[in-house]
Write a structure and sequence with these properties.
Number of helices: 5
Shape: elongated
Number of strands: 2
Structural class: mainly alpha
Number of domains: 1
Order of helices and strands: HEEHHHH
Strand order of the largest sheet: 1-2
Strand content: under 5%
Largest sheet: 2 strands, antiparallel
Length: 130
């Protein structure tokens, strides 16, 4: 029996979230390290001007490195979930609180949506994990 479609779809969402937020995060880190402002993507500030800054927490390199770590772990989790691996599914669930802090703090609207859908897909076939 192959890996259920739900795990494949959840893995794709993990990769989309991890790479989609992680790759621009690298550019934002590079900009800050060189003394420039955060980059704009499609007219919106990448990782800045959101609730973090409104509450006095400016976008800094350590903050972005933390988010990049979450993104990299999401990609790893996606690789494991693609194979139907229980550890990957557990990692995906464990990353939810940290991811939520960053998605909300940086005002990233797609993060929570992807997380909700991928969590539903994983939980739906939990007993099929190996």
């Amino acid at each position: 029996m192959g890996v259920p479609l739900q795990f494949r779809l959840a893995a794709l969402l993990l990769w989309l979230s991890g790479a989609g937020f992680g790759l621009p995060c690298i550019q934002a880190i590079a900009n800050l390290l060189s003394g420039r402002d955060i980059p704009y993507i499609m007219g919106f500030p990448a990782y800045g001007r959101g609730p973090f800054e409104r509450y006095g927490l400016p976008t800094t390199v350590p903050l972005l490195v933390g988010f990049l770590a979450v993104c990299l772990l999401e990609c790893l989790s996606g690789r494991l979930v693609w194979r139907g691996n229980r550890r990957g599914a557990i990692l995906a669930l464990l990353l939810l609180p940290a991811g939520a802090v960053y998605w909300l703090g940086f005002a990233l609207p797609f993060g929570p949506i992807f997380a909700l859908v991928r969590t539903f897909l994983i939980v739906q076939r939990w007993n099929s994990l190996t």
